[in-house]
User: Which sequence fits this backbone?
């Protein structure tokens, strides 16, 4: 059996315990080498929004090439729905600074049904709520469906997607 120390000694050609640096690499860049548009939150938000605009344009361009009858995966449309919601919330916050941003639907439902001890997945509830509305249910009906059967479904169908759980909720009505 080979001892670890002997194996390391064979592999390591540099003496242990010494610091070796690469003379060809500079640890610090000069201020002229740094290409930034600022350290403020506004500059960061501008960069992120520009990226979001570019990504959205590419997505829209690709979608326009596709036939209207094509279907898209539910995980993808869920991400698109959430992204649009997040952008709308961010826009509302900046355009109406006096109005506080409302909490998500998942937060509201979890607060109303706090007796469950935090076992609810707020993000999943919000996705299911949006999917139920997208499928033609009223906001009140969607909320009632979730209140009435979410716990039962989330236990019985733990691995199901939010889309599948929304579908099951509709069938239980």
Assistant:
């Amino acid at each position: 059996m080979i001892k670890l120390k002997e194996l390391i000694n064979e592999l390591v050609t540099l003496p242990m315990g010494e610091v070796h640096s690469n003379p060809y690499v500079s640890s610090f860049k000069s201020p002229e080498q740094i290409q930034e548009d600022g350290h403020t939150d506004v500059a960061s938000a501008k960069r992120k929004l520009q990226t979001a605009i570019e990504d959205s344009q590419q997505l829209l361009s690709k979608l326009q090439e596709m036939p209207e009858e094509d279907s898209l995966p539910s995980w993808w449309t869920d991400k698109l729905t959430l992204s649009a919601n997040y952008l709308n919330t961010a826009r509302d916050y900046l355009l109406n600074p006096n109005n506080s941003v409302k909490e998500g639907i998942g937060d509201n439902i979890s607060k109303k049904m706090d007796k469950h001890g935090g076992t609810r997945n707020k993000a999943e509830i919000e996705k299911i709520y949006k999917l139920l509305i997208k499928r033609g249910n009223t906001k009140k009906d969607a909320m009632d469906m979730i209140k009435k059967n979410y716990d039962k479904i989330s236990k019985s169908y733990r691995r199901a997607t939010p889309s599948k759980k929304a579908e099951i909720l509709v069938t239980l009505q």
User: Anything to note?
Assistant: The chain has seven helices and no strands. Residues 41-65 form the longest helix (25 residues).
